[in-house]
Amino acid sequence: MATLAALSSVIFLCLSQLPYYSSAVNITLGSSLSSATDNNSSWLSPSGEFAFGFRQLNNSDLFLLAIWFNEIPERTIVWYANGDNPAPRGSTLELTTNGLVVNNPGGQTVWNASPSPTNDSFISVTEAAMLDTGNFVLKGNGSDFVWESFRNPTDTILPTQTLDLGSMLFSKLTPTNFSKGRFELHFDDGSVQLNPVAWPGRFLYNSYYNSETNRINSSGSGNKFAFNALGDIYIVKTNGEIAQLSWETITPSVDHYYRATLDFDGVFTQYDYQKNSPTNQSWRELRKLPENICTAIYNEIGSGTCGFNSYCSIQNRRPSCYCPPGYVFVDPSNRFMGCRPNFRQGCGGDDGSRDPRELYEIREFSYVNWPLGDYERLEPYSQKDCEQSCIYDCSCAVAIYNGSTTCWKKKLPLSNGRDREPGSTKVLFKVRKGDSSSGFGDNSSSRRRVPILLGALLLGGSVFFNVILLVAISLVVFVWHKRGAGNNAQDSRVSDTNIRCFTYKELEEVTDGRSVEMECEEENRAILTDWACECYVERRLDVLVDDDETAMADKARLHKWLMIAIWCIQDDPSTRPTMKMVVQMLEGLLEVPQPPSLPSSAF
């Protein structure tokens, strides 16, 4: 088996080196593209599956020279040239004997690609082509490619692409900002490594993933990082053996598109997309490295996965960044850039004339941890002693109490924040009294707040009655499904939480029967979920609340609650949010993403 695997890898590598060119449409010298209009022309591969040209950035007057999947609605970009220096409207791309050159309207060069001289001799470009593999190539006088996008990757690799020793990928800064971001993939010493970067510089922190294929024995070290035509990704060693990465195995399919991208959040992810499929599908995540980047990054210096003073939590299999109590995002449009305190604090922040207990209070936080950066350890201390020590210490921003006798104090900036399972350890944040942006509010955990929230939802009055009831019913359905259809117990409480699970009869009694009838004029309003989903699709929130003026004055909250409810009643249980996530979304601690689809029961 090892011999067969080695032979197949050698065959693949040999084939990948061939000039995959015979079916290409040649682009002749002097050919050009322009970014003068929003609908720019492009150079297509023979099949039309890939395109090379200018892409407009965020409906602005800036353009990116890129390669993208041309046959899918998203037109996903897989390579780009000038992410740090987008071209202004009116720029031109031209193929010359020197290679590719992008000039702005003033004639200044924005970007260029040219062959490297061989033996001090100039190499002249004769033509170019966009290949069906997604590789854009320049051809010289011979049959060899003298430049190709596959040898100059950005954040993505494609089937038939290989990375040689010394190659790298770099993430985007955000999903829509193509500047170099905060993470890099390196294949330098025979191992694939993922590293956080000291952005905006390029200093590399310690890796958070390492394939460990850089063996002392040179014959066993990695030589090629390969993405074969069938969709598998692996390392080819010097002796021809294959080393798999430490992720899930997949069964590739010939009727799928594949790509592997170092995403802006630092996760190296392989995706697939079914060819000739309905237009409402999107890229599917197949496997990723690391599985949990929040805990994988653990460096004494640097901010961690998210920026300083924030914490990372895996939501829907992806990392998300959040601010602790009393802190706000430095850049709300890019939550990975960290948080800052939204109040005056620190030594010198006050004149010293008032007792710190009059100015500050402690907010208890139980679901996160900042494991590094302690500057003082105190013991034996009670929790009250720990809180008082932090309040009276002008350098202390947060204290960690282990639930028994030990207190650790930390100062800003906080780093490597990550979500964790609740336990005896308490995170004690010092915040300014009267601060209205502290986020989490009280000292209780999310689970203990659920009964209060449900009670408020059900008994909160008639202003948001329709959508409030929808959320409440959805939560009941969600909890019932979590317990399993085979569980016939009549107990109306969940064993591991304090959540009250109302029966439909109880809901009907609380709401005087309006849970079914809703006093609707039209027959299709008898089923609340169908009616609410229809109002959501048609953007008729006014109908949902019967034109209530108070409700319509807060349409943003109304819309958010409705989105939460639709998430809770998704047909696929795996896509429904957890109870903790629902609580956090209701309280505004988590963003509410657009629901993927309406449940099949709707309409």
Write a structural description:
- There is one protein chain.
- The chain is α+β, with helices and mostly antiparallel strands and 603 residues long.
- Among the domains are: 139 residues, Orthogonal Prism (Agglutinin, subunit A), CATH 2.90.10; 133 residues, no CATH class; 140 residues, no CATH class.
- Helix content is 19%, strand content 27%.
- It has 12 helices and 36 strands.
- The strands form 9 sheets. Strands 3, 4, 5, 6 and 7 form a 5-stranded antiparallel sheet that branches. It has a 5-stranded antiparallel sheet with strand order 30-36-33-34-32.
- The radius of gyration is 29 Å and the shape is globular.
Query: Structural class per helix/strand content?
Result: alpha+beta
Beta content comes to 25-35%
Ends apart, CA distance between termini = 54 Å
What kind of sheet is the major sheet? 5 strands, antiparallel
Number of helices: 12
Low-confidence stretches: 1-22, 436-465, 478-504, 513-526
Per DSSP E runs of 2 or more residues, the count of β-strands stands at 36
- The 3D shape can be described as globular
Secondary structure: helix percent: 10-25%
Mean pLDDT: 79
